[in-house]
Amino acid sequence: MEAQPLLTPYQMGRFQLSHRYPRTPGIWLKEHVEAWKPIVDAVHAKGGIFFCQIWHSGHASDYSYQPNGQAPISSTDKRITLEVGEEGEPLNYPTPRKLASEEIPQIVNDFRLAARNAIDAGFDGIEVHAANGYLIEQFLKDGVNDRTDIYGGSLKNRTRFCLEIIQAIIDEIGSDQVGVRLSPYLDIYQCSDSNPDALAVHMAESLSKLNVAYLHPIEPRMVHVDGKLKLPHMLLLMRKAFNGTFIVAGGYDREEGNKVIAEGYTDLVAFGRHFMANPDLPKHFELNAPLNKYDRSTFYLPDPVVGYTDYPFLDA
Ligand SMILES: Cc1cc2nc3c(=O)[nH]c(=O)nc-3n(C[C@H](O)[C@H](O)[C@H](O)COP(=O)(O)O)c2cc1C
Fold first, then answer.
1. Which of 273, 291, 295 to mutate to test the pocket of ligand 1 (most atoms within 8 A of CB)?
2. What domain count does the chain have?
3. What's the chain's average pLDDT?
């Protein structure tokens, strides 16, 4: 895709209105919608299907990204105490503000509006980001959620916020345009749960009832078994409990991906890092061509020229 000369959603979000995180695009303003349109059109022109992932980082943020430097919101008022990141970089998370029960409908409505905006921008659907330690997961998991209102405590209560968001979006745009990302078995930003199987199954059953287009859980990173790296394949319970399209991600390659589809473990496999480094990944897989190696040092950086955009295509 060619670089767009527009003021990008990233720039608007970062410098004007970001409530989230550095270098993330937004879709809450009409200007964002307009900025997304040519990007969506470019993807469609190449035959791509484009879902917009909608998220809220909750307390995985910083005061400096909040309006007036205020505390970011969460299900809790306990801060993340991780002191170093994946690369050993020092981290210092803010103390969040626990959302009041009566504020929650406003957040649910924000998600609904973002979904409407995404459809207005031409996206084929939206994916609710209920994974990876961000706001929705801060409600889902009992290692973080310490609430005593109807959004905390039992599994039914902890999943209420997530399911209210998804229901509101379905009412707005229809269930066939809604996918959901979950990571019950990961522990990112200290978002852990004492019974991930129960959480996984409860969410899969609830989402089946809501008839969402797909469920996209993340396989935990590879583990060592008998000295060999293996995927843990922990998503079977969810697969059985969900009656729509099931997509797995996390550590897959061509062989492992083909294998789990052939075995019926999943309907589809999504690729993250390999796709970043191989813009024509399907072609690589089709020809079983060697993959470009991803360069981790360029992940999450805003450089428009180095990193995401400079990996070679096979033809080149
Ligand atoms: C640089 C980078 C950015 C990512 N951003 C997101 C994101 O915005 N939303 C999300 O759900 N996952 C995100 N992920 C996680 C990937 O979607 C995927 O789950 C993860 O990379 C594991 O899959 P893989 O082994 O195929 O890379 C990101 C991963 C990387 C490396």
1. 273
2. 1
3. 90
